[in-house]
Structures are given as structure tokens and as C-alpha cells.
# Entry
Amino acid sequence: MANRSQRTLLFTGAYAEEDQSGVCIYEFNEDSGELKLLDEVSGIKNPTFLNVDADNRRLYAIGEMAEQGGKAGEVVSFEIDPAAGKLIERNRVRSVSSSTCHIQRDESSKYLIVSSYHGGLVGLLSIDEEGLAGELLDEKKHSDLVPVREAQQARAHSAFYSPDGKYVFVQDLGLDKILSYTINPDTNELSFHGETQLEEGAGPRHLAFHPSGVYAYVINELNSSVTVLRYIQDEGRLAVLETISTLPVDFDGESYCAEIAVSEDGKTVYGSNRGHDSIVVFSVHEDTGYLSPVQYISTEGGHPRHFTLMPGGKFMVVANRDGNNLVLFNVDPEDGKLAFTGYTVSQSKPVCVKPAVFQL
Ligand SMILES: O=C1O[C@H](COP(=O)(O)O)[C@@H](O)[C@H](O)[C@H]1O
# Structure
């Protein structure tokens, strides 16, 4: 039964022109899985990634701004009114000098980190006392930190904090590395800490930690695989354990991975395949963190660039960029397998789905 003192909302980001709605808010029905559109926001060019701070009722969307013939990154801060189901824009700031593809926030909501695929860099921004995106505090270009071969190009794709909050792991798709950083709270600087080398041509894109905090899983866009990592907490390092394909053995078409998630109970890992247009479901070996595929299920639409497990754990929402739809799946509580609910919502080029529960 739905709890009337709280409301679960789903925020979506999309590829959109400024005159199109790029960010939408839906109310999520935890019993039926249905999504009801409450509000839509236009005026941002390509809000392709979002970060939601439910405690402080803030949403941060990345965008693009034209600058000297190129594109710079932008962060737009919104106040969330969960009772009304509305977003109120509070400010927008320029972030880094190239367009961005991901935005992350620390637990204490002090910093935002943007990743720029096209610039091969990460940017650290402050969050002010009103919870709004502030100034660019630091910027690190990966090509200044690690050797880059002639055929390579740095492509920072996402940043994730370690479970203890001490390190930031940045996936670089072009260098086949995960670069780690610490943030100095006195100087507000990112300092390069180390790197994890992945297989050549892997293309690490997104990362997800296991709830135990012992393992992490990185999804590799270019060779359609997941690498299982062990988090060595004392050293702030991710060590490679094994790499496993996200595709069925008999598939020989073109496909590129996108998103990865671990179930709350830590028993299942999910990954998306753009091309095969599927979600791969892996069961997690309790003692080793290793993965075994148990299902490949169609996403009922092309190019599943993002997906999310919904609060409560009963449903998954998949955002199909080329299917122009959000697709709802039931999650089996026993084995984590997915089943299409038959329910889809039309939306133009959705590429980010972020749920949050609000106390009213
Ligand atoms: O996953 C991907 O992301 C990058 C970055 O996205 P963009 O919208 O900022 O360009 C994209 O370029 C790459 O082709 C894609 O596979």
C-alpha cells in the first residue's frame, strides 16, 4: 500500500532542444508501477544527466551552452516541490569549457563533479548554502595526469564516490582506465590518487558499488563487458578480479553498453546493451563478487542508455533513447530476473531516470 506521508517521484533527463521539454517529473505508484506525468521543463539544451538531492529538495541538471563556436557545460539547479510535483529553477552556472555527460554529488552536498567526455576532464563545483550550484573550484584534464598514446583520447564519462566517501573514481572510456581522486576540503582541489588499468578497448563508462562496499562493477561501453573489481579501502584502489561479457554468446551484431546497477540486496547486477537492446541480469556469487548471467531481456525499445531500480525494489524503469519510451519491468524478489509489465510511457529521447522518495 502506498504511504500517504511520502511520495516517490521519478525525474527524467533527455536529449532536447531548448524549446522542447528535457526534464520531466512523474509520480510513481509503488503498487502498480504506473507513472503519472506531473511537470515538464524546457529551456535547457540536452539535459542528459541529473542528480537528485531528496533531503535538500534540489535537482541538478547538466546542460550545454554555446561558447566561441563550441559548447561549454552548464549546471541548472532546481528546487523540488514534491507535494505540487513541480520544479522551480533557482540558478544556472557555466561548469567546464566542454560539454558534460554526467553529474555527481557528495553525501554532504558540498560539491558537484561533472565529467566531460568531449573534453576528457572532470570539474569540481561548489554547492552554496542555499543548495545551488556554485563556482568551478577545480578542473583536471586526464591527459595531464596519465600517459595518452597517439591513438587514444581521454573521455571522462562518470564519477562515483567510494562507499566511505574518501575517493572519487572516474571512468575514462578513451584511456581504458579508472582514475581516482581525493578532494582536499581546505583547498577545494581534486588531487589525482591513482589508476586502475582495464582491458585495452574496453571503454569504461559507469560504475556501481556492491552494498557490502567490498566489490564494484564497471560497465565497459566499447567491448560490451562488466569488470568485477575489489575495493581495497586502505589504499583507495580498485583491483581487477574478472571481466565478463554482457551479451549472449550467439550475438554477433553491434552493441555498446551504457548503465550498470546493483540490487539493494546485493544479489543481482544489471547492465544495459545498446544495439542488442537488452538488459543483462547477472547473479552475484556471495563469496567472491563474481558474476554469472541469468537473463537477457529485451528493453522493448532501442538504445537503453539508462535505467534505474525503483525504491521498494519491485520495478525497474528503462529509458530507451531511440525507442522514445520509458519501459517498466517487474523485478523478481527471489532471483532478480525481470519481466516486462506491458506498461510503457512515451517520451522523446529519454536518457536519464532518477527516482527519489520525499517525506511530505
Ligand atoms: O555513451 C555515450 O556517451 C558519450 C557522451 O555523450 P554526449 O551526448 O555528451 O556526446 C557519447 O558521445 C558516446 O557516443 C556515447 O556512446
The chain has a mean pLDDT of 97. The pocket of LXAUTJHC is lined by residues 48, 99, 101, 117, 221, 256, 258 (CB under 6 Å). DSSP finds no helices and 28 strands in the chain.
